[in-house]
Specification:
alpha+beta; 2 domains; 3-stranded antiparallel beta sheet; 2 helices; 3 strands; 38% helix
Length: 76
């Protein structure tokens, strides 16, 4: 893991398409501004599991889980 120190107004570049800027630091909370292409998914880490579980449940309801199982068998 890379750990960087930044002050308000300073930025970090991720590749040539994503800029993360420190907007505010107050009471132990850091506000970040993220400039990235619209097609790029930006998700808070704590929501990742919720989204993953929701997608799994949705695929089971639509029968996609069976398709996934078949896909796994075909890969072997």
């Amino acid at each position: 893991m890379l750990v960087l120190s930044r002050k308000i107004g300073e930025s970090i570049l991720l590749g040539d398409k994503v800029t993360i800027t420190v907007m505010e630091v107050s009471k132990g909370v850091v506000r970040l501004g993220i400039d990235a292409p619209k097609e790029m998914l930006i998700l808070r880490k704590e929501l990742e599991e919720i989204v993953k579980d929701t997608n799994i449940k949705a695929s089971e309801l639509s029968g996609l889980s069976e398709l996934g199982k078949l896909s796994e068998k075909l890969k072997k």
